[in-house]
UniProtKB/TrEMBL annotation:
Subcellular location: Secreted
Coiled coil region boundaries: none
Record domain FAM69 protein-kinase: where: 147-277
Superkingdom of the source species: Eukaryota
GO CC annotation terms, alphabetical: extracellular region
Species classification: Eukaryota, Metazoa, Ecdysozoa, Arthropoda, Crustacea
Family: Belongs to the DIPK family.
UniProt name for this protein: FAM69 protein-kinase domain-containing protein
Keywords, in A-Z order: Secreted, Signal
InterPro entries recorded: DIPK2A/B (IPR020519), FAM69_kinase_dom (IPR022049)
Signal peptide: none
Amino acid sequence: EEHCPLCFGSDLCEDISAGFLTLSSDAPRTEDGAKLFDAQLADLHKLTVKVPSSDRFVHLDTLVCKNASMAASCSPGLAAAQTFLAKTDTLTTRGMYRLLRALDITRSHYPLLMCPSKKLLGVIERTFDDNDDHIMSVDEKLAMYTTLTAAPEFVILKLLTKANLNVGFPRLVGVCGRIGVIEGELTPLASLLEEPFNVRASLAAQILTMVDDFMEDDPEWYLFYGSWTLEKLAVNKEGEVVLTDLAEMAIVDKAYFRDDYEDGTESRQQLVCNNECFQRFTQEIYREDNSMDESCARVEEVGHLMYASVCAMILSDMKQHKYVDLFNSPSGAKQHPRTTQG
């Protein structure tokens, strides 16, 4: 904790230094550049220790030294207090876009800020206000910006955990330095494809219920996920299906959506949005000059595609159904040579 250059936080550091958290293996698994270690806490709970890819840390450390007018080899932990990360009063859309540009992170590769309302940014700030004093200390600001840039999935996990939104994600136990500790004992969904039909049907129903919860469970927030694949789902020890990769999730303020029209002059009937329609939508919503309010108001109209994505990418074994990444390719779609077996 004392030597960490820029950290996610320190809420688990005391337990780790006391020896309560131990790794079960020195051989990590790799997932999207991150390393995953099996671990256990106080010999009771099996957990997963996640170490994100070092690439964004390297760029962030370099940026901090440069912004503090120090040498590239400076100590980022010492320099950070002299940068705009520590001196910015509140988290703003403009500040986050500035930071992402400086780190060469394109908005289309950062779904968390697809619709960054002022209310959402305020919730993120409160999520990192660890002592709940309604004042962001320098350490809390640095932890927030470090997590936002190096591991946005931890931001979402922390936000959903703190908000008690149990909508199908692994529980975040805590962080220390540049690691995150999450719920363990997760069985990959892909390993259950040969289970009896009633088991597979129950799991399929859970996935569809998860999509419904993303849209309906909370009165204020709409969770949109565009990268459904078999490999991103697992089953926890309670038998519940969870989404293991939240980096592609967008959190949208439902205040963007129009209420039902009361005077009867307009209709809520909507055209069905297909894959090509959604590709056009994502290209539009990430344009720098787009109308954010107008574009984000349409998220509800295209959200039903999550059902279609789940059915095509996970539940179907039809050869013409390919993996589609609705967020991360320039055209909005990315095909892989392998299909799922549902």
